[in-house]
């Protein structure tokens, strides 16, 4: 069982950058695969990126490859999402998620725990 709290969202101009953080509580954080998803109003939740329990394996949606980077610090129970060259169409609520597996997954239904989300708004 883990609890997740996102932070770092806000308003940014197109082409700008944001760094999101996800703080986790729980004894077994280091055993969980982690992911970031996003959801715009009226849209389905969309996979963004995932990272394995060790941080050695990462997986990105094609739309964010080369611009976004996921990382984790198991000693601090933290996972991060660095977002560069942001686009207005990427305006959404961004969610941190944890999976009771050490591996990565792109499917939201395979994640067991979710944060409350943090709003990211990209202006043009």
In helices, the fraction of residues equals under 10%
Distance, first to last CA: 40 Å
What overall geometry do the principal axes of the alpha carbons give? globular
Structural class: mainly beta
Radius of gyration: 13 Å
Low-confidence stretches: none
Largest sheet: 7 strands, mixed
The number of helical segments is 0
Give the overall pLDDT as a whole number.
Answer: 96
Per DSSP E runs of 2 or more residues, the count of β-strands stands at: 11
- SSE arrangement, N to C: EEEEEEEEEEE
In what range is the share of β-strand residues? Answer: over 45%
How would you describe the overall organization of this protein?
The chain is built from no helices and eleven strands. The chain has 124 residues and is mainly beta. Strands 2, 4, 5, 6, 9, 10 and 11 form a seven-stranded mixed sheet that branches. A four-stranded antiparallel sheet has the order 1-3-8-7, with no helix packed on it. A hairpin with a 6-residue loop joins β4 (33-39) and β5 (46-51). It is globular, with a radius of gyration of 13 Å. It starts with a strand and ends with a strand. The relative contact order is 0.32. The mean pLDDT is 96.
Helix/strand layout:
Layout: E1 3-7, E2 10-13, E3 18-25, E4 33-39, E5 46-51, E6 58-60, E7 68-73, E8 78-83, E9 92-99, E10 113-114, E11 118-123
Parallel strand pairs: 2-11
Antiparallel strand pairs: 1-3, 3-8, 4-5, 4-9, 5-6, 7-8, 9-10, 9-11
């Amino acid at each position: 069982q883990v609890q997740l709290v996102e932070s770092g969202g806000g308003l940014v101009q197109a082409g700008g950058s944001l760094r999101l953080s996800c703080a986790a509580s729980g004894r077994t954080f280091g055993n969980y695969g982690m992911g970031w998803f996003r959801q715009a109003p009226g849209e389905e939740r969309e996979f963004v990126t995932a990272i394995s329990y060790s941080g050695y394996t990462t997986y990105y949606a094609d739309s964010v490859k080369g611009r976004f980077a996921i990382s984790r610090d198991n000693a601090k129970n933290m996972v991060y999402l660095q977002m560069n060259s942001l686009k207005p169409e990427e305006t959404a609520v961004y969610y941190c998620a944890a999976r009771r597996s050490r591996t990565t997954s792109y499917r939201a239904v395979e994640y067991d725990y979710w944060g409350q989300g943090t709003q990211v708004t990209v202006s043009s």
